[in-house]
Amino acid sequence: MAFDLTALSIQDEFGNNVTDYSRCNVGDKLTITYDVSVYSYAKASTSNQIILNYSGSGVIGLNWVYDAQGGFKDFKIGDTCERKRWTDNAVLNASIVVTDKVNDQLIKFDTDLASVAGTYDDPTEQSIINLKASITALKYFWNFIENDEAINYNSKIDNSIQLLLAQSVLSTNTQTSGVLVVGQKYYISDYNAGDDFTNVGGANVTGKIFTATGTTPTTYSNGSTLNKAYDMVFQGAKPYQTGSGFNCLYG
Asked: What does the pLDDT read at residue 237?
């Protein structure tokens, strides 16, 4: 599974962006936002030619696919996948389902990806087979690292692991119009000009998180995307922790 940090922002309690991290002093109330991308895939290339309709290793039947690099590690029977060219995102197979799996290198789909047995996935296509399953849970490990200290997540107070947890969250829980729920946190993942959320506690800019104080924005007819944000739970009972965390999964 690949994990990319795509964006990081730090804001003070007044909503101002903090660009000089050295000014983030002890006692300051800060909001730190991470945008991350998580994905699992097997990728064909000139050095890793995935074999479609594989017939070796004693397998029986059609639709087996072999990846020498073990790219199917996170794939499970019943998962829905997509095959596309990663160079331009052109879809080659929109929906293929895993029906059997031998190991991380050898997997079977419900779809024939090649009419001739033993066909190598054309490296010029540079195709990628990726999972389409939505993320429904998140573990966030964190800590304050002292100068020259190795990366770790152990509390400086009781040595316990610093962890925030969210589970049973739907990444498809979004909206582009309609009414809001008072008290619900929302993340503006894509703001479109013309919409106005200021009367319900929001702001008119992509990347802002707000708690709805009303149900009906002044204007919500231009398709801005709101993602519901959920509180995350600290691992264990730690009364000394004064911060909080919340997440919004989308994709």
From this structure: 57
Give exposure, 104-116, as e/b (b: 16+ Cβ within 10 Å): ebbbbbeeebbee
Query: For the chain, how many structural domains are there in total?
Result: 3
CB atoms within 10 A of CB 99: 16
The answer on 73 and 34 residing in a single domain is no
Provide the pLDDT confidence category of residue 26 given band limits of 50, 70 and 90: low
Domain of residue 27: give its range. Answer: 1-39
Do residues 108 and 116 touch, judged by C-beta distance below 8 A? no
pLDDT at 240: 61
61 & 121 share domain: yes
Q: Are residues 90 and 142 in the same domain?
A: no
Instruction: Among 42-46, 95-99, 133-137, name the most confident range.
Output: 95-99
DSSP, res 176: S
Nearest CA to 161 out of 147, 139, 143, 138 is that of: 143
